[in-house]
Structures are given as structure tokens and as C-alpha cells.
From TrEMBL:
InterPro entries for this protein: TF_GRAS
Organism: Davidia involucrata (Dove tree)
Region of interest called SAW, as start-end residue ranges on this chain: 80-106
Keywords from the UniProt entry: Transcription, Transcription regulation
Protein name per Swiss-Prot or TrEMBL: Uncharacterized protein
Length: 106
């Protein structure tokens, strides 16, 4: 939904929080150009796989579930879908700063 994030930030602002923490990966998988999105996804998921390799055995059932379901779905959504069908989107910190500033929260 196009305005979901705006609505959520509006609600958060109305709560008047003293501190708000956002955890986001440093990648822009929200690019409209396929090659830009593909390159960002490649670097992002390469680092995720590197982390998994360092922390879990390749035959670990939890790792296999993460790779086979969650990570695969994220990659597929970023690479193969367009418009509103694409639900996995990441933004870099500059985008978040501008977004929070728009709501007077930066």
C-alpha cells in the first residue's frame, strides 16, 4: 500500500516518542531500475549468506529454513516483482533521514 508508511509515521509522531529506533539494512532495493535493484540485492544477500556461513553449519535445519523460505522470498520479491506487488523494499539512511524530516521527527 503506497501510504502505509506515511500513516504509520503519523501515528508514531502523535505518540510523541522521546526516542525512536529504526533497524534497516544499508541497501536501496527500492530502485525502479532493475539493474540497480539487482545489484543492491546481490550485495545485501551476499552479506547475509556470509553471516549465515560464519554462524551456522550448512546443514543446520534452521539455516535451511531461513534460506529456503524467508531469504528466497525476499530475493524473489525484490528481483521479479514490480510496483505494488513488490513488498520487500529497503532504503539507505539518507532516504530515512529525509522521510523522518518530512514528519518533523529528525
Amino acid at each position: 500500500q503506497p501510504d502505509c508508511l506515511e500513516g504509520l509515521l503519523g501515528v508514531c509522531k502523535n505518540l510523541c516518542p522521546c526516542v525512536m529506533v529504526v533497524c534497516e539494512v544499508e541497501a536501496n532495493t527500492n530502485a525502479t531500475a532493475f539493474m540497480d535493484r539487482f545489484t543492491e540485492a546481490l550485495f545485501l544477500y551476499s552479506s547475509i549468506f556470509d553471516c549465515l556461513e560464519a554462524c551456522m553449519d550448512g546443514h543446520n535445519p534452521n539455516r535451511m529454513t531461513m534460506e529456503g523460505i524467508y531469504i528466497w522470498q525476499g530475493i524473489q520479491n525484490i528481483i521479479t516483482t514490480e510496483g505494488e506487488e513488490r513488498t520487500t523494499r529497503h532504503l539507505k539512511i539518507d532516504n530515512w533521514r529525509a522521510f523522518f524530516a518530512k514528519f518533523g521527527m529528525a
